[in-house]
Amino acid sequence: MNLHSLVEKATQWKDATIAVAVAEDAEVISAISMAVEKGLAQFLLYGNKEKMELIIREVSPQLQDHSRIQIIDAPSVKEAAEMAVKAVNSGKANALMKGHVSTAVILKAVLNKEWGLRTGNVLSHVAVFEVPDSDRLTIITDAAMNIAPELSQKAQILENAVGVARSIGIEEPRVAPIAAVEVVNPAMQATLDAAALTQMNKRGQINNCIVDGPLALDNAISIEAAEHKGIQNDVAGQADILLVPNIETGNSLYKSLIYFAKAKVGAVISGAKAPIVLTSRADSAESKLYSLALAICSASNNRN
After folding, report:
1. Which residues of 134-158 are buried (b: 16+ CB within 10 A; e: fewer)?
2. How many helices (H) and strands (E) are present in the chain, helices listed first?
3. In this structure, what DSSP letter does residue 237 have?
4. What is the rounded CA–CA span in Å between residue 65 and residue 216?
5. What would the mean pLDDT of 111-125 be, rounded to a whole number?
């Protein structure tokens, strides 16, 4: 599977709707245009109506008066974010997308106790990479939300990623909790947590996946490296999900794949009532399209 096939998979759900908070951004509109062209979803665009219509005329004039687009005027950025979140909460939309609004503002709306998207679970970032010369998609979590998760949080982050993996067709993903070494070292908390997660999986506390760690990055993704170290298990060399120990590791790995390896990526925030596309302004329209497809697949899986 690659990210193009992920887009094709997402189009199978014919009635998906995405609520976009503050859709006053050229890259966001371009991504929406690409999604509409592929028949990916319907879109509810919240924000300053005049600004959105101007950007559409300049960037994607084919979206003017398009049946898949509804523009809803909002008096402020804050209210646009709230309106988009409420649309998802009420079932009018199946997923939320961040537009030209700060992460803090949209997350405040998401976490509202009355009409937000809280579930009581940990929210985590799940990124799906298509790496050149790799024969499979690689999932990295968590590169953007949780700074230094402890064991129980890592278990929920892992479960969020497994849910996303299963939504794109990886029925029993192989999970590698990443550390600097592949042996348990009491002085290295990442190795202790990795060993505990492995045991939790074996005892049925974490399901629908195979977990084995700690594993260093090379031993998680390279069969040759794992064999050289004499590591033999069902995850070594063929991990689908890389569970990083902290945000610095995840963020560096995420950006290294994009800038050094020229990998393609789609990402969502998982753990809320619905998937959240929380891309940055630096992300391309193509990356936003892949993120939308990932959100639709994940939302469809939640519905089932």
Report:
1. eeebbbbbbbbbbeebeeebbbbbb
2. 11, 11
3. T
4. 52
5. 95
